[in-house]
């Protein structure tokens, strides 16, 4: 997989510091599963965070802090946290972790919601205020033209799309904000499946879409 | 010194001012004053054996293999008080900080068999556990992570360079480069880690335009890459 478009360094910093919300972190973490280069950057940032923590002046702990902890460990022994089983092994595996655990299966088996105009979506439950969704855009079809009221990131999982800023194929990570008015099209050979995260509802410029937007939740 | 070299760093003077809560309006100076240089343990790297003699990593391995209480105690005595300070600098009160420290050390005990000294230093690994628990504590959110056992995980390419740094060497160089950052860049990076806020919030906290904060982060990344001998 050759990846040309990566998350910005600011976003990787936010991911490593813990400041990035769950929806965005899901997109970054899924990109990381596919991108050794960004994993390397993340490892360095974590080394930096570890260094900051290690360099901190030791605080005074509560009395008996260790004894309380040890008593707890003994009473709970030995619920070792084993590695979580890989989810979704039963079906075909066509989405990487951690995304697969969030949507719960392979692309074909998902309860897609048909949005018309060749677009299907699947909302992904996350605990932050932002919206994460899978989008499937039929080969050659446009993703309706839209601007954003806030930020948007798009991680391509299958197929590719193209807009005025370039071609985005599997693994590529696009960041856009309200200054970008882009009209992405899925490439012609194959449906394009993306993970899209927005911090505000998409604002479609296409009139038909704008009229139905309040009803379909996109 | 054939094939073997020593990375040494003098212990930096500990001249931290007591950290006033700097969540609001303490500005760049306040943030930087709170940053002690990272004191790095003296560490010997034997390039022939590619092994790093470092007590903390060994302690975690001992916990994993032998459920070694003494090793756990030693690890706790070093890291628990530092974790507590780290969390309190992010604005947590002492009781909450202590609670997350306890949870972090529970995970260290339980997940010790997942620690791979070839992938991370002990401090890096413990930091990442603590950070995840803090996200859960503060925002009740999960923090998704890649799973290297996943069949779709794309593994690292085989190293092709002649000079492959060990994890500890690279971490030391990163920390050295961090210590040498100009104060304005260091302040932004430090606040991001302490406060666990996105850089956009750090910008408003410091009263800086978002673009300024972004460029400071990017400049800091450049310096860290050049500290690692990479083209920037
Ligand atoms: Zn990347």
From TrEMBL, chain A:
Please give the Pfam families that the UniProt record associates with this protein.
Cupin_7
Identify the InterPro entries for this entry.
Answer: Anti-sigma_ChrR, Anti_sigma_zinc_sf, ChrR-like_cupin_dom, RmlC-like_jellyroll, RmlC_Cupin_sf
Q: Report which superkingdom the organism of origin falls in.
A: Bacteria
Residues forming the ChrR-like cupin domain are 107-196
Protein name, as recorded: Transcriptional regulator
Q: Which organism is it from?
A: Pacificispira spongiicola
